[in-house]
Amino acid sequence: MSNIYSPHTDQSAPLLKRVLGPFDLTIFLVAALVNLNSAPVVSSIGPGALLLWAIGFLFFFIPQSIAVLELSARYPNEGGIYNWSKKAFGNYHGFVSGWCYWTNNIFYVPTLLFYIIGFAAFIGGDRTAGFSQNPWIMATAALGLLWLITLINIFGLDVGKWIQNIGVFGTLFTTVLILGIGLLAIRHQGMANRVSSATLFAPLTDVRALVLLSVVCLNYVGVELGPVLGDEIKKPRRTIPRAVIIAGSVTVLLYLLVTFALQVTIPAAEIGVIDGILQGVKRTAAQLGILWIVPPIALLMSLNAAGNTSVWLAGSARIPFVIGLDRYLPAALGKIHRRFFTPYVSLVVQSAASSLFIIISALGSSVTEMYLILLQTTTILQLIPYLYMFAALYKIRFQPQFQGDGRGFFRRNWICAGGAVVGFMVTLGGTIFAFLPSMRVDNLWIFESKLLLGVLGFLLPATFLFRWSHRRIITLHLTPQAIPVTPE
């Protein structure tokens, strides 16, 4: 069943507004891509983390960008990766792709909220630093922040984008400050981790690197988030390519700089998974006599995580919104707020599901294990839609039935073929290795059971929901609704 997007014929109905220009979308993508809080997880392997970031950029980020640029040029409308999978493989596979993309953010958004709270705990110094180790304090604060950010995004992207702008400001200043501290540390005490050809290339012989590479891939996802909001972007065919190129260049540079600063300031074996950056900053600042700088950096790190949270909450909520219009999820998810012109029902449902998982994840887990389960579950679910996207790139580019669907971005077939094949293979490997714990856990069987049940608990309902909805659509002769949008 096809879905045709066009301006709504009923002018009394609320419309999606095109509010994201080139600068706004670039900031939006940087906020989505740069999650400095994940750098400690990758940095725990030592200086070889720099190699992992480079490998991930070359073999995952670049193929991802090729796929997004090509597919968004052909199909620039709201829904992005969901629409591309549906176009290439049919409604069922489109639904599974969109379902995984949406549900993975039910896990991912809480991990970002934990970062905000963990960093904010450093602002109060020793009096509040222990809060980040209490699962129930973390869960309660995360719930409050989640619904605050949800409310702001219901007010519209033209309001919510200020969270992303502030978040990117926090990201840039955080990077400058910790890099400066790292350079001071080299001058006064040398490197905390020895950087040599042996340590840089150590991931090539370390099985843990395969697990961490999946985390690197997760941190490079987000380019496709722009086209997910395709009908809310001004001149998307021109705006998206510019934003992707600039945001990608900024992203890899920031990850490399922050990872280098961590290698300078703290031994790899002592890097914490949640507060690793502030851990290194605090240790080095104490040695240099500048402890006063820790609270400002903690505040900036919190802003970075807040921008990241807002972007993924707003972007992923557009997927059930479009699926709701296609009738494969409840039609209420396709409602647009009459005053704020946002898919408010979808945003509320997204946050309600994340709230439930925050509460469940706090039961019987340490904060570290709770975080790792969230991180690796969201990694697996996030990468499944990417398998669809790379396969869709190859099929849409090379099979004759798609040749009339607009002009692609690239003139050379080998660019799309290489991006599709390399991207698919790296994504498949990252998905498989994401099932292995990247760090030591107290009980491997409990950890793996929670991880497996978390993944299956969201995959299995997808088939049931699709089949039930498909029968209902046929029985009631339902048709997809068009997305009402303002003209470009």
Task: Describe, in plain words, how this protein is organized in 3D.
- With 488 residues, the protein is mainly alpha-helical.
- It has helices spanning 22-33, 39-43, 49-74, 81-89, 91-123, 126-129, 135-154, 157-189, 197-200, 207-220, 225-228, 236-265, 276-288, 294-325, 344-361, 367-398, 413-433, 444-476.
- The chain has a single domain (22-476), classed as Amino acid/polyamine transporter I, CATH 1.20.1740.10.
- Helix 1 crosses helix 8 (157-189), helix 10 (207-220) packs across helix 17 (413-433) and helix 16 packs antiparallel against helix 17 (413-433).
- The longest helix is centred in the first third of the chain and has 33 residues, at 91-123.
- It is globular.
Set out the fold topology.
Elements: H1 22-33, H2 39-43, H3 49-74, H4 81-89, H5 91-123, H6 126-129, H7 135-154, H8 157-189, H9 197-200, H10 207-220, H11 225-228, H12 236-265, H13 276-288, H14 294-325, H15 344-361, H16 367-398, H17 413-433, H18 444-476
Helix pairs in contact: 1-8, 1-12, 1-14, 3-10, 3-12, 3-16, 3-17, 4-5, 4-16, 5-7, 5-14, 5-15, 5-16, 5-18, 7-8, 7-14, 7-15, 8-12, 8-13, 8-14, 10-16, 10-17, 14-15, 16-17, 16-18
